[in-house]
Protein 1
Amino acid sequence: MRGAVLYGPRDVRLEEREAPKIIEPTDAIIRLPATCVCGSDLWDYRGIDPFTQPTPMGHEYCGIVEEVGRAVTTIKRGQFVIGSFFASDNTCPNCQAGYQSSCQHRELVGGAQAGMLRVPLADGTLVATPDPPSDDLIPSLLTLSDVMGTGWFAAEAANVKPGTTSAVVGDGAVGLLGVLSARQMGAERIIAMSRHEPRQKLAREFGATDIVTERGDDGVARIQELTDGIGADSVLECVGTHESMMQAIRSTRPGGFVGYVGVPHGVELDTHELFFAHVHLHGGPAPVRRFLPELIDLVWNRKINPGKVFDLTLPLENVAEGYRAMDERRAIKTLLRP
Amino acid sequence: MRGAVLYGPRDVRLEEREAPKIIEPTDAIIRLPATCVCGSDLWDYRGIDPFTQPTPMGHEYCGIVEEVGRAVTTIKRGQFVIGSFFASDNTCPNCQAGYQSSCQHRELVGGAQAGMLRVPLADGTLVATPDPPSDDLIPSLLTLSDVMGTGWFAAEAANVKPGTTSAVVGDGAVGLLGVLSARQMGAERIIAMSRHEPRQKLAREFGATDIVTERGDDGVARIQELTDGIGADSVLECVGTHESMMQAIRSTRPGGFVGYVGVPHGVELDTHELFFAHVHLHGGPAPVRRFLPELIDLVWNRKINPGKVFDLTLPLENVAEGYRAMDERRAIKTLLRP
């Protein structure tokens, strides 16, 4: 089996890897019709996150169950399934509270940029579609594994409600799907912050009513201007840098909500400022498992089409170009066909 | 008129000050039957907050309206009123959203450790009791001006709901009234963190079901132990130090809520840790005005007795001793009788 392996900054290679097999009796092996590159893969790709050894890449997946361990009871061979980047038992108190990405037995899923994948805790992690999907649904179903679930969590953590004003910081795939999520949750006004024309266009398609091209303090000033000097009710932080986080907090009205899903890199909160900002702050790794049934239903019934974030499709052989295109912001998100 | 003035670290003096008068037409002047020392006054008293000039102290007040400006329409001479440390117009969008302490026209009220006080924006700030209160109600009514309203906000920001488990970090007056608030909001289990026997006693009287005497990592370990390794649903942070804030965050279950009302002093949040902690964070200066009608009703009908936090009553002349007793933790909170 061939899979993508990161060897160092900007050095990702497709190489022969051992095909995954059942290790724990709760595992499943799935065959992947498609996989993709995540914005968070770029932290590693750019050498920003510490890196020690060649690492099989990829944590977004969906596909056909090929084999299950002997302790797996609900997931069956032949089902088309989707799971989260954090495997979870879905029974512990944290899972029951809806925070499966803080499952007491969680395991990171890795190596999904390949043709086959081992998923731990299959019964707790995987959710099956009603039937095998038609091929055109696969990109959208694949987004539910992370990027769509994460945008959805940003909107939910930011308390998006019908009739309210949302702002979205970040025009990567997560931010764009944050726009889609805010629209789906009934936000009346959705301000997307983006300087990139193709991304602005997709943001509008997903439901953005306003585009703000300014960043940092200027971006905050523009949001304040658009909201009568009060700030937005809900702000989705979908980047993870210090600048984006401060932009989010300062764009939120007192009593408003910041939902943050960008893994923080160098974010330093001025806690005195945060105190007087009066915002609600919630976020973290998205508990994708919680949202899967609802999101599968929305995709299955063609109510949402999050797969539109894939503006580049490549065969898995060209994975290196898939990373490069995202790194250079030539592509929003790369779909890879094994 | 005599009032308390801070001259420098641990140097508070009672001195002759000019009696307040109407400056703006929206002002009211009230006569104070009692006033008190706030835990937050100790930041100044201890020289921790920057200090430039002699400062009239005190921001907690209730009393009889003596005079109102010509633009004041709802507050009348002779009413017994309570207000917040932040005067607010109660009409701007932030006030309407329930965040009067972020009012677009807010003004800090100061100099309340005296016999008389000027309160700006009287109509928006002050709430009258149904009738003049009996003398024994005055301490409890006085707490509503800040300390009780702040404990209440901590519990509300921490999302205390019937049947849940709350923990309270801080055994000052705010923390103790956070316990009372959590009980009032229906928490089933309330864990008070305190090493001081008289404060533990009052915490139990206010509704604490468990006492944890350990602090820092040991305190966190104890909370985890008491909650089956999950953490509390709601944690009230009522101190404002780095240690207390980290203790609060680490004592909260994934998906749980931290309500923080201690003005942050030296708090440095590890945003990576915060992200993976999955907690909700909300706090700030309490929007006391929002809570006044409900809290006045509870005190008036003797459903709560927050005035019990005053374990030292002194004539205003002895204000210096009032500060000393709190600074040395000999007193929980000092009531001053002008």
Protein 2
Amino acid sequence: MIHPTALVSSTAIIGERVEIGPFTIVHDNVVIGNDVRIGAHCELGVANHLSGGRPLSIGDNSLIRSHSVFYEGSTLGAELVTGHRVTVREGTIAGRNLQIGTLGDIQGHCRIGDYVRFHSNVHIGQKSVIGDFVWIFPYVVLTNDPHPPSEHLVGVTVEDYAVISTMSVVLPGVTVSRGSLVGAHALVTRDTEPAMVHVGSPAKAVCATSKIRLQDGSERPAYPWTSHFTRGYPEEVLSKWRGEES
Amino acid sequence: MIHPTALVSSTAIIGERVEIGPFTIVHDNVVIGNDVRIGAHCELGVANHLSGGRPLSIGDNSLIRSHSVFYEGSTLGAELVTGHRVTVREGTIAGRNLQIGTLGDIQGHCRIGDYVRFHSNVHIGQKSVIGDFVWIFPYVVLTNDPHPPSEHLVGVTVEDYAVISTMSVVLPGVTVSRGSLVGAHALVTRDTEPAMVHVGSPAKAVCATSKIRLQDGSERPAYPWTSHFTRGYPEEVLSKWRGEES
Amino acid sequence: MIHPTALVSSTAIIGERVEIGPFTIVHDNVVIGNDVRIGAHCELGVANHLSGGRPLSIGDNSLIRSHSVFYEGSTLGAELVTGHRVTVREGTIAGRNLQIGTLGDIQGHCRIGDYVRFHSNVHIGQKSVIGDFVWIFPYVVLTNDPHPPSEHLVGVTVEDYAVISTMSVVLPGVTVSRGSLVGAHALVTRDTEPAMVHVGSPAKAVCATSKIRLQDGSERPAYPWTSHFTRGYPEEVLSKWRGEES
């Protein structure tokens, strides 16, 4: 299941039933779990002096799509799913079932929880700390330098269940609080309020997320989104959510 | 004209005089017209359960530049031209002479007319409907989810001859009307007015497009742009435009 | 040091101690200096009728990371460093030690000085003119068409030591003046004032850059940034800066 054109180091540790696509390169310092599929034209385990010699570790049941690049020194949990051309630098630790859309750029030294979804083309700056069940939409940038360029990087924190919409920027050191929603094209300069909607540049809290109604004709509240959006989450998560609702 | 390192499925249907570059992969369910050039490091016809078994179809006289990825289940008309690293997902139907700049991401299930130009790094969300002779500039995002994340996607409509400038976001379900111009770094929250300029966040109509003058010393009106910009369009289109003017 | 899977033209001029990675293509009209490392899956020297037959020239001691594409007809000085998947079109002349982050897109016909740093995913429009020691952060776009689409392109000018923060757009013909700082998510519609901070959409000058203090506990001024940020610059540059300070 390793394509004959792939270049796989003999020192890489490859699990059972792993597929590796054409023209993909797997370097020395890589550990890949079981039942992982890796697309074409990827490069895994790029050596880097910032990785401290730690391997790239990819969890079981993961899917990495074509043209993606992962550095050594990061650990991604089970059920990772990526789009095409993602980049993951060194020093990042992510939980289970992280999704990174096409062109996503995880700059390294981030902490990412479980079941996080990055849509296409997000830029997660170094030292970001991201909770569980977070959604980040296209062209969002999490920054980290309060006075660029400098050596004093302060990451963004995104708490559980928060949602950041398309083309928004979060300034260094800011916390996007639990269950808050950042609207599209916003500049988040201060910590958001939990379960509140924030829009504009600079972003301001405008209402509770519970005020937003589904436009599917049901008129049900759209938030917390866990009340209606369940695609891709396992039964154990869904039952936890049902427990929180009742 | 198929490079010896390319991997081309024997079941793919390849036209006459087709060039396929080094390290490019063409999967089973692909139909390529005549006189098509495909660059290096591409992957065409990526299988996907959402494609309904339909092939990827690329029209005659097309040019696909390197590192691009096309899924099965989309149909692109004749004279497609792409930059590098474009992604086209399944279920999209595009007319003739679509241009997609480098890093463009067409998310799938879109309808795109004839002679549409996407500059670099646009993100065309699922269910977008785009007319003829539309221009979309870098880092524009057409969104589709009114309350993310949800299952209720409502695409953007962009009508004929509309222009959307750099780094603007169009919210779900909004129509960018015929011949309207969206300025750079705008957030379009409501339908635009035909042949009007819209700027800001949220975007507001500020004047007729005809008020904008060419800065080339001629002082002629810059809009409709068809009065002065003709590069790349065939004589049949130009004569149609001349007919509309007179 | 040329990987056996790389495809290197016999007419390309390759310096001493050059490494070329797997699956990389070097076309005919390319001149590579000494001690250059080129990653995997790159394509160098893409032929183009706009290049006037001039070669792609890469200076000594450069590093080009994987999946990058360079056209013929551009000249990059010594110590170029790129991230992954950068694109450099024809007709650009850059000085020494240019850094281009992952996904950077240099559209061609640009002039770029010495020691310029582009962070990830910048879009440098055609005809941009960039001085020395400039910093441009992710998702910044330098535009060039005052009334898109048109044939009358007017590039942006960015003067020495200027800094443009994340997700900002600079309109055509605008000058970002020496030592000025553009905040995140700004729309720069007019020339900025030297050594002033500009924020908002449209961007306005709000204070002198010298008012910004380092958040590292030192309370020292954060600008000019050369007073505290020295990583990656050679001793000859640092001694020049020390001379300017005193």
Protein 3
Amino acid sequence: MSQEIPEIIIGRLPLYLRALKRLKMTGQGYTSSKELGEVLNLSPAQIRKDLSQFGELGTRGQGYQIKFLINKLHQILNLERTHDMAIVGAGDVGEALAKYKNFIHCGFQVTTIFDNDEEKIGTKMSGIVVQNSAEMTRVIIEKEIEIALLTTPAKSAQEVADQLVKAGIKAILNYAPIELKVPEGVHVEHIDPAVHLQKLSYYLG
Amino acid sequence: MSQEIPEIIIGRLPLYLRALKRLKMTGQGYTSSKELGEVLNLSPAQIRKDLSQFGELGTRGQGYQIKFLINKLHQILNLERTHDMAIVGAGDVGEALAKYKNFIHCGFQVTTIFDNDEEKIGTKMSGIVVQNSAEMTRVIIEKEIEIALLTTPAKSAQEVADQLVKAGIKAILNYAPIELKVPEGVHVEHIDPAVHLQKLSYYLG
């Protein structure tokens, strides 16, 4: 698989996958770029162009076979196995993520939680014992975890990220309201509800 | 203010604002497109181009005065007043959002929470009484709330969104894992951690 596919296209593949899974639940066998475009607010041409990056995935006249395309997207996105994840920061956001039921349907599971607060260490969150952050590097290496959900306060986020990278973490979903610096080969996605809200409030005019 | 500024630029303004606020905390008076670019992983040219959409905000040689630029961005993004928000869905995600301390520093506050679960109605979440969803339209109109945080399950999300639109909601931050259909003039931002994780897992290769 080529590594040179633009990141913006990779970012749309999970949306295609989510839409396809919903269509499959209705019992439908095939879909079209037109139908997917309506669901996703994208032009049919954009969808055909995106998917054509990965080979001939549809048939002219018939469209896309839903089951085939779902399998193909699972392959492309490395979703054929379940990925273990570590939460760092057992606060409210960490707790909501630990309880989040949709992860397992999407190929992910939280297996490990860390915090540096002595009152939290040893307690359970969604059935998982909160471990001491001091053990973080060792545990992540032992468990070969590649994905971390970073939910610490902003002031400690970069330091924690540096430790995660040293422990071999390759992907960070960052909930701390700060941009993280990571070396090449490590990928970060940032979720900050305030940023989305401030964008929305522009349109309140 | 022109409504024709591309959405992708509007989406970057909150990131500029967040970076500027952090620089201001260090006591710094001025910044440059180069410095902002380093913080945000954007080219200095991109930053100058984005900001030039809103007039002459910097001075050649001196750069951008941080305090002035923060005020200007507050103006552009309608952040000069605090926006009230309603949470619909008092589950784990709703609760984490109700407790989220960063909102108030960013211009937002949760004032109202709705759920249709009789066991939750009347209980308090982060000091706010959970109200019956049946009252949603009336309460939102009365309180003139324009922003909703939608944290219901996927299956009821579209129906709730339709009701919110009828009640006058203009902006929805959608945590339900489904694309919402809304009429023109209503804006939706979607937060789905699974979508971000599936993008990240592509790079785990």
Protein 4
Amino acid sequence: MDITRYLERRRAEVDKAIRKFLPPHGAGKPSGLHDAMRYAVLSGGKRVRPVLALAACEAVGGRARDVMPAACAIEFIHSYSLVHDDLPCMDDDDERRGSPTCHRKFGEDTALLAGDALLTLAFTTLASPTNGAALTTRAAARRLEALRRVADAAGVHGMVGGQAVDMAYQGREPDLPTLEYINTHKSGALIAVSAEVGAYLGGGTLSQVRAIHRYGRAVGLLFQIVDDILDREGYAKLIGVPEARKEAQDLLAKAKKYVEPFGGKGRALAALADFVFMRTY
Amino acid sequence: MDITRYLERRRAEVDKAIRKFLPPHGAGKPSGLHDAMRYAVLSGGKRVRPVLALAACEAVGGRARDVMPAACAIEFIHSYSLVHDDLPCMDDDDERRGSPTCHRKFGEDTALLAGDALLTLAFTTLASPTNGAALTTRAAARRLEALRRVADAAGVHGMVGGQAVDMAYQGREPDLPTLEYINTHKSGALIAVSAEVGAYLGGGTLSQVRAIHRYGRAVGLLFQIVDDILDREGYAKLIGVPEARKEAQDLLAKAKKYVEPFGGKGRALAALADFVFMRTY
């Protein structure tokens, strides 16, 4: 399958949905905050997480519209984390994807609040009806469970926890267990939960959701290791590039094995794992 | 009724529940973040918002345990907002309630992340079962709706929006409509939704929930105006102290009128409005 074309198509769907949930441009007070939120979410980004969610939904034969709010919510969480990570008290970055970071463009106070507002918007979005139609009681209960899993992956036991440990090790080399903690939490948890809730909200069975969650964990770790190989950082620095490459290959094989039972419907998930491994984007 | 004793009793219940939801002290990685979260939530605070939620539940004859997770979640949101407001890029405060602010004690990066983690924890808490027992489908659907209302009150159309407008007016005087926007959003929205979801999750009828939401809006505004009178700021500065006092009296009367139909069960809500008006604490 042509994964680039698949990504393009899915990304366009996601971007369309994202725009519906964001506060519109020029919609009154507080306009600076609205603009900063839109800037943080709409200036680039491959939408890897929402596309994973949609591909996972596809694998279990679900409907994209049941997953889209969660997919957008996860992208809002990813965006907020980048805005806060770039702040002077964190990584102090001036540029992201070739453009000024949110705080360089809108000021630190507005960037801080834009991050807070995006994180909050993620949960509004997860709790909102799709296309204006009220949720059935059953669908609402599923949403609540999906939301709980997303919040868990984003919070102190997930992404923010990983970020805190990463910050604590600035300027010194973490040992392997610490590095694994950072990798599975800082970036891995949100990637894993993207695939998981895609399968869950798509109506997957318990064992299907489990398999796709495992796939997501492998892809999340793969994502980080490929980053490390490209930057000669983290894993690649600690165990060497050849070893890290071998680890990446193992993770890729694992990820693909988990989605094998889904046959043709799991094709996009398998191709996405290849894509993360190749990192040609 | 003895409102001080009532507040004490309810506050103890809330604090007990809050401790269950917070990451425990000394519970492994990332311990600095855990400590900062606990510090932000557990060092003082009157728990006005959770107590309002519990009193609203009482007014509709509901069970406190159905409301407690939402009550704690709202306190986590309130706590995160204080941590972020105190940061150098916002109000740059060194002390809160006579102790060092979170960033003075734990560093700016940890304080930022502790705020993020508390906001996320609020939604984990709102989505979690009470006392470990799984939620019925019906209860889960109610939780999702309560969560949506809380997220709405906390985000860009509520608290964060009010905060952004307030920051934009630093160093110049806002006009009356702007000041009203700030008051109803920055502090008012979260107070109003506390009462509202307390009634909603307590099983109140549509018209009961509406009345208590109106009560909450009046109390939220009252809270801010009393603050302004004490500080000779905002409202009191713009329309003068005697006018602001009159406004406060009107709001108190309004709030009490809304809860009159609840009779004896609404006694705590009425007493809480009096208490906010007197601000003897």
